[in-house]
Amino acid sequence: MAKLANVSTATVSAVINGQDKVESKTRRRVLAAIKKLHYQPNFYASNLAKSKMRLLGLIVSDILNPFFGEIAQSIRQEAQARGYEISLADTQFSRKELVSAVKRMVGMRVAGLAIMTTEMDSQVLEILRASRVPAVFEDVGTVDETISNIRIDYEGGIYKVVKYLVDLGHKRILFVRTYPENTTKDDLPLLSINLRTTAFQRVAKQFKQAGIEPQIVSYSGRGPKAGQEAIHKALDHCKGFTAAIAIADPVALGVLRGLHQRGIRVPEEVSLVGFDNSYLCEFLCPPLTSVDIPRRGLGKMVVDCLAGNVESKEPGRELKLETNLVLRESATRPKGFRILRREKLT
Description:
Layout: H1 2-5, H2 9-16, H3 24-37, H4 43-50, E1 55-60, H5 66-81, E2 85-90, H6 95-107, E3 112-116, H7 122-131, E4 135-138, E5 147-152, H8 154-168, E6 172-179, H9 192-206, E7 213-220, H10 223-237, E8 243-246, H11 249-261, E9 271-276, E10 289-292, H12 295-312, E11 318-321, E12 324-326
Helix pairs in contact: 5-12, 6-7, 8-9, 10-11
């Protein structure tokens, strides 16, 4: 490239790195050579040469889940705006895979690491502290010099849902929770699933005097399928309910399908609310009311924490992300409190 542009390699490097010391005429000649040769800079080699990586690692539980996909997109956009690139990995809710992913990221010499997973393992903190790699967790981290933690206000979101349903006249409210397959008892205290369930239980107690009758149904498996099976289980074994809150939007999708299979209309007979406010909510029939976790706000918090630690040695922080309730057409006033038990349609 230097030969084609008739300049030194130092001049080519200066143009590629955006330095102002190169004359405009020479710069145009170098840029023309870059275009002709279809040159792409070696990002990793460049950063290693500078001993300063502009690469952030991002680990999520399930890239197929819209919630995690939208988080990844938000963090990537914020990172690129700050001059960083992103390396992405997912764990499929496995603590073993989480540990492996963290080791790989540290081996890649990432500048910082965002761990947006529902699972956690003590080895992860040991690895990060030993390597001194700055990290940000969602809900499950322990704040220290290089580690930040973002706590999502699950309870605030659940409170808004329950209050909304109670104000509509609902008293028998079902909470539909699902777990990843092969989840062990040791996993449960660390899962956001458990945090959301606990939030529902606490909020239900606050509305006890309003006559609320909370119920919880659980089922193991992937989101939509598990939600579908969970609602069949609830219809067969739970008392009549007029409203259901799904632990996540993909679960709500399955609940919606399961109710339809049993000939039960939403929202005329059962009101339904999701959690996460994924993009698909507004395209369901009916459009799904859901608790919103602001992706843009989360992405900014993550990158601000990592960049602050990497660039300015700022200590780890504990941050809280508020949640909101987005109202759509899947919830309305109940017609009555009769038991909803119907045979599956064939």
